[in-house]
Write a structure and sequence with these properties.
The complex is a heterodimer of chains A (about 325) and B (about 325).
Chain A (H helix, E strand, L loop, with lengths): L3 E14 L2 E14 L3 E5 L6 H8 L9 E9 L2 E2 L5 H7 L4 E4 L13 H12 L4 H14 L5 H4 L9 H14 L4 E5 L7 H18 L2 E6 L2 H7 L2 E6 L2 E7 H6 L4 H9 L47 E4 L2 E3 L10
Parallel strand pairs in A: 3-8, 3-9, 6-7, 7-8
Antiparallel strand pairs in A: 1-2, 1-4, 4-5, 9-10, 10-12, 11-12
Chain B lengths: L6 E14 L10 E14 L3 E5 L6 H8 L7 E6 L2 E2 L5 H7 L3 E4 L13 H11 L4 H15 L15 H13 L5 E5 L7 H18 L2 E6 L2 H7 L2 E6 L2 E7 H6 L4 H9 L39 H5 L5 E4 L2 E3 L2 H7 L1
Parallel strand pairs in B: 3-8, 3-9, 6-7, 7-8
Antiparallel strand pairs in B: 1-2, 1-4, 4-5, 9-10, 10-12, 11-12
The chains are: A alpha/beta (about 325), B alpha/beta (about 325).
C-alpha cells in the first residue's frame, strides 16, 4: 500500500553480554501509515525503547550489538544505510521525542538555538531564517511569548514547557515520522493532558506518522489508532485501539487490563502473577508461559507466531491457532 | 471498612515552610517555600486516607510531618489524642513503634549491604526484641508479604522491584504499627506488579487492621485503595471526601480538572475535558487568594484576593472554593 510510511519486518536486536545473548527485541514486525498513531505498549524491559533506537540506528554499532531484519522507511531499508545517510534522516525525516525533557535538551544552549540547529544542519538555512523557524516552532507547540522564550535556557522552562520545546525541535525538520518514547511519563497529569492534545493537533496538521511508546494503557486509549502489545521482546498482540480494549485476546493483554485500577470501580484487581522472564535466559516456547493462566503443553515447545483472529487483529497465542483444532 | 468511630490522627493548622537561602555572593531577599500551609484533617482508625496531588503540592512533606520526620513550622498533630509535636526525643522514640513508613523507591530504601532478614529484623532489634521472637516474626512477615522464607539470607539486589517493595512493606509491619504512611508505594512499579502490591496492601490491612495514609499522584490508584481522598494543590488541601463521592461528585474545579485529565483506558469514552491552561505556579511565591485562581476556569475577582475557607459542602465532604460556597448559599 502506498501510504505505508514505515514497514518493520522481523526486526531483531540482540546484545551479547557476559551472561549470554540478551534478546531485547526478537523478531517484531509492524507498519505505520501516514497520519496514523501506533502505540507500542509494554512494561519495563519488554524492548519497546530498543525498538525505537533500532529504527533510528542508535544501536547496532558496537560489536556486541546485533541488529537484523528490515526497517523500510518510505520504501528504503534503514538498516543497510550508511551512517552519513542516517545523519541526514535523523532529525529531519524522523524526529525523536525522548522521555525526559530535562536530559534531552542541552543546558548550555538556549532553547531557540537548539531548535534553530535543525534547519541549519538539514536545510543549510541561514542563521536568521533558522531562528525564525525556531520561533515559529515554539509558537506551534503553544509556548507563550515565543520570541522571548527562544532566548532562554532550558532551566528557565518548566517540565511541561521543556517537553513542548523538545516536540518543537522534533518538528523543526518537518518529519514524516515521529517517534515519541514515553513523552509524557515525566509530566504531571494536567500537563500530560495538554501535551497529548498537542500531539493530536500536530498529527492532524502535519499528517506525520507517530510511534507512541508508552507503558500507560490510558495514554494509548486516548490518542492511538492502533496498538502493539510487547512482552519480553516479542509483539504478543496487535489490533486497532477500539478492538484491543473491547476484545483483548492474548492472556497478557487481558491480564494488563485487569491489573489497572479503574476510576470509580473498586472491584478487586486481578494482577498477572509472577514476573517477566530474564531476557538472557529464555526457555523454549512462549515467553509468557510461566505467568499464563491458560498454559498448556504446546506453549512450551515454541514461541507462537501471530495468529489472525480478525482481519486486523493478530495474537501470538496458541489458543487462537485454528488449524490446531 | 468505614468505621468512623475513632479518630487516630488529627491534624490542626499544620504548616511547613522551608527557607531558601539567598544565594552565595549576592544578597537576595530571603524566600520561603510554603510546602504545607495550614492543613486540618483527621484520619480515622482502620481507614485508608488517600492523598493526591501533582508534583510539588506538598503531599510527601505532609506525610513526613505526620511521622515527625520533619519538624512542623506551626500546628499540632494528635496521635490518639496526644500531641506528638510536643514529644521529647525519648517519648517520640517510644511512640515511633506505632507509626511506620513505606517509601516510594524500593531501590533506594533498602540497605544494599543487609540481607532481607537483617532488614526486616532491624526495627525489632532497635526495640530490643529477643532473638527467638525476632526470627519467628521475620518468618511470619515474609510469609505475609509472599516472599519465600528460603530467600531470607539474600541481598536486595537479588530481588525485582515488586519483591523489594514487598520487603519494604514487611519491614514497616515488623513492629505491628497502628498507622502507616505509604508515600507513592507503587509509583516505581509496572502495572501488573503494581496490582499485586496494591492487593497485598489491602489484604494486610484486612488482616492486621492498621490505618493507611496513602500518598500518590495517580488518582485511579488512590481511588482503588482509599476510603476517603484528600486532594492537595500547592500546599493546601482543596477537597476531602469519601472516595466514591469525590469521584462521582467532585465540587472543586481542580479536582474536576484532575479527574478529567486522567487518561482512561477505554477508547470509546471520549469525554469532555476540563483542560487546565498554564503550569503549576511555584510554591515560593504562591498566587494570592485562592492558589488555584491562575489556572481555574471559574475564577472570579474574589478568588484573587481572599483565601477561600474550608467548608463542609455536605456531610463529610469538604472543599475550599469561593464558587462552591456561593453556590451553596
Amino acid at each position: 500500500m502506498e501510504d505505508v510510511l514505515l514497514d518493520v519486518k522481523e526486526l531483531k536486536t540482540h546484545f551479547k553480554t557476559e551472561k549470554g545473548v540478551v534478546k531485547a527485541v526478537d523478531g517484531i514486525s509492524f507498519q505505520v501509515r501516514r497520519g496514523e498513531i501506533l502505540g507500542i505498549v509494554g512494561e519495563s524491559g519488554c524492548g519497546k525503547s530498543i525498538t525505537s533506537q533500532s529504527i533510528l540506528r542508535l544501536v547496532g554499532y558496537k560489536r556486541n550489538e546485533l541488529v537484523s531484519g528490515q526497517v523500510l522507511f518510505e520504501g528504503e531499508d534503514l538498516l543497510t544505510k550508511k551512517e552519513k545517510n542516517m545523519l541526514a534522516i535523523r532529525g529531519s525525516k524522523i524526529g525523536l521525542i525522548a522521555q525526559d525533557p530535562m536530559t534531552s535538551l542541552n543546558p548550555v544552549y538556549t532553547v531557540g538555538n537548539q531548535i534553530a540547529e535543525v534547519p541549519m544542519i538539514h536545510e543549510k538555512a541561514s542563521k536568521k531564517s533558522a531562528w525564525q523557524t525556531a520561533i515559529a516552532m515554539l509558537k506551534k507547540v503553544g509556548i507563550p511569548s515565543a520570541e522571548d522564550r527562544a532566548d532562554q535556557y532550558p532551566h528557565q522552562f518548566s517540565g511541561g514547557m521543556r517537553q513542548r520545546g523538545v516536540i518543537g525541535m522534533a518538528l523543526a525538520g518537518n518529519p514524516s515520522l515521529l517517534i515519541a518514547d514515553e513523552p509524557t511519563t515525566a509530566l504531571d497529569v494536567t500537563i500530560q493532558a495538554q501535551v497529548l492534545d498537542l500531539m493530536l493537533k500536530l498529527r492532524d496538521e502535519t499528517n506525520a506518522g507517530i510511534i507512541m511508546i508508552t507503558h500507560d494503557l490510558g495514554v494509548v486509549a486516548e490518542i492511538c489508532d492502533k496498538v502493539a502489545v510487547m512482552y519480553a521482546g516479542k509483539i504478543v498482540e496487535q489490533a486497532p485501539v477500539e478492538e484491543l480494549f473491547a476484545n483483548p485476546k492474548h492472556p497478557y493483554t487481558k491480564g494488563l487490563l485487569k491489573s489497572l485500577p479503574k476510576l470509580g470501580d473498586k472491584e478487586r484487581l486481578q494482577p498477572v502473577e509472577g514476573q517477566p522472564p530474564n531476557l538472557n535466559d529464555l526457555h523454549e516456547g512462549c515467553r509468557f508461559a510461566d505467568r499464563c493462566p491458560f498454559v498448556f503443553d504446546k506453549c512450551h515447545t515454541e514461541h507462537p507466531p501471530l495468529f489472525s483472529t480478525d482481519s486486523n487483529h493478530r495474537t501470538a497465542c496458541y489458543l487462537y491457532d485454528e488449524e490446531a483444532e | 471498612m468505614q468505621t468512623k468511630t475513632k479518630e487516630l490522627v488529627r491534624v490542626e493548622g499544620l504548616k511547613k515552610h522551608f527557607k531558601l537561602s539567598g544565594g552565595g555572593l549576592r544578597k537576595e531577599p530571603e524566600q520561603v517555600v510554603k510546602a504545607v500551609d495550614d492543613l486540618n484533617f483527621s484520619v480515622y482508625e482502620g481507614e485508608t486516607l488517600g492523598i493526591v496531588g501533582e508534583s510539588g503540592c506538598g503531599k510527601s512533606t505532609m506525610g513526613r510531618l505526620l511521622l515527625r520526620l520533619l519538624e512542623p513550622t506551626e500546628g499540632n498533630i494528635y496521635f490518639e489524642n496526644r500531641d506528638i509535636t510536643t514529644f521529647s526525643k525519648q517519648e517520640l522514640r517510644e511512640k515511633r513503634r506505632e507509626f511506620q513508613m513505606i517509601f516510594q523507591d524500593p531501590y533506594a530504601s533498602l540497605n544494599p549491604r543487609m540481607t532481607v532478614k537483617e532488614i526486616i529484623e532491624e526495627p525489632l532489634r532497635t526495640y530490643k526484641e529477643k532473638q527467638a521472637e525476632r526470627s519467628k516474626r521475620v518468618q511470619t512477615l515474609l510469609d505475609a508479604v509472599g516472599i519465600p522464607e528460603s530467600y531470607k539470607n539474600r541481598y536486595p539486589h537479588e530481588f525485582s522491584g515488586g519483591q523489594r517493595q514487598r520487603i519494604g512493606i514487611a519491614r514497616s509491619l515488623a513492629l505491628n504499627p497502628k498507622f502507616i504512611v505509604a508515600d507513592e508505594p507503587v509509583a516505581a512499579l509496572d502495572v501488573s506488579i503494581q496490582a499485586q502490591v496494591l492487593n497485598l496492601m489491602k489484604d494486610l490491612q484486612d488482616e492486621f487492621g492498621f490505618t493507611y495514609l496513602f500518598i500518590a499522584h495517580d488518582l485511579s490508584v488512590v481511588n482503588y485503595i482509599s476510603d476517603r481522598i484528600g486532594v492537595m494543590y500547592l500546599g493546601k488541601m482543596v477537597e476531602l471526601a469519601d472516595s466514591d463521592k469525590l469521584y462521582n461528585n467532585p465540587v472543586h474545579p481542580y479536582t474536576q480538572a484532575l479527574l478529567s485529565a486522567i487518561p482512561v483506558p477505554d477508547p470509546t469514552r471520549k469525554k469532555e475535558r476540563v483542560m487546565l491552561t498554564g503550569e503549576l505556579p511555584s510554591p515560593v511565591n504562591p498566587p494570592s487568594g485562592c492558589r488555584f485562581h491562575t489556572r481555574c476556569p471559574l475564577a472570579q475577582d474574589i478568588c484573587k484576593q481572599v483565601e477561600p475557607e474550608w467548608i463542609e459542602v455536605e456531610e463529610n465532604h469538604f472543599a475550599a472554593c469561593h464558587v462552591v460556597k456561593e453556590r451553596l448559599s
